[in-house]
Amino acid sequence: MKSLTALLPRRRSLRDRILDNVREGRLQRTLSATTAASVVPLTFEVYLEHYKGSFGSRWEWLPIACAPPVTAAGIAGVFSARAARTWLPATSAVYALNGAIGAFLHLRGVARKPGGFKEPIYNLVMGPPLLAPGSLVLVGSIGMLAALMRREGER
């Protein structure tokens, strides 16, 4: 005679369920939460770096102004599939575009330093960080990708 536990369906581990979600493309909630959670510390870092530079250009306020809508849309995307398909990709696209503009402006900032790119060692260290705006592009891309995914728990 079989035991009672042998008759019950086996409960799958959390790791197995997560891996199944990844394999099946069910990551909408996860990517929405990742976007919302990534924007907050990134914006704090951007604020500190631009504060060090005394907010020399009005463009430096743009990534800080874009952060609250992306964070709110990411949080909403965790709870609502509709928000994850509409508001999150829209705000994330603006955030990613902001990063692309920032990459251009940082490149221009290095070029404007005395000696420009003829003094790369000094100007790349002392000028604006070239790769930092790429973080905004990456986080924005994660938010846009969430719209293409299915929700966890759906079949």
Spans with pLDDT under 50 lasting ≥5 residues?
Answer: none
Secondary structure tally, helices: 8
Q: What is the beta-strand fraction?
A: under 5%
Number of domains: 1
Largest sheet: none
Going by helix content, strand content and strand pairing, the class is mainly alpha
Total strands: the figure is: 0
Report the C-alpha radius of gyration, rounded. 21 Å
Distance between the termini: 35 Å
Q: Label the overall shape.
A: elongated
**Residue-averaged pLDDT, rounded?**
90
H/E series: HHHHHHHH
Brief descriptors of the model:
single chain, 155 residues, mainly alpha, 8 helices, 71% helix, 0% strand, elongated
Describe, in plain words, how this protein is organized in 3D.
By secondary structure, the chain is mainly α. It has helices at residues 4-7, 14-24, 28-52, 62-79, 81-85, 87-112, 120-126, 133-146.
Q: Can you give me a brief rundown of this structure?
A:
The protein has 155 residues and is mainly alpha-helical. Helix content is 71%, strand content 0%.
Structural topology:
Blueprint lengths: L3 H4 L6 H11 L3 H25 L9 H18 L1 H5 L1 H26 L7 H7 L6 H14 L9
Helix pairs in contact: 3-4, 3-8, 4-6, 6-8
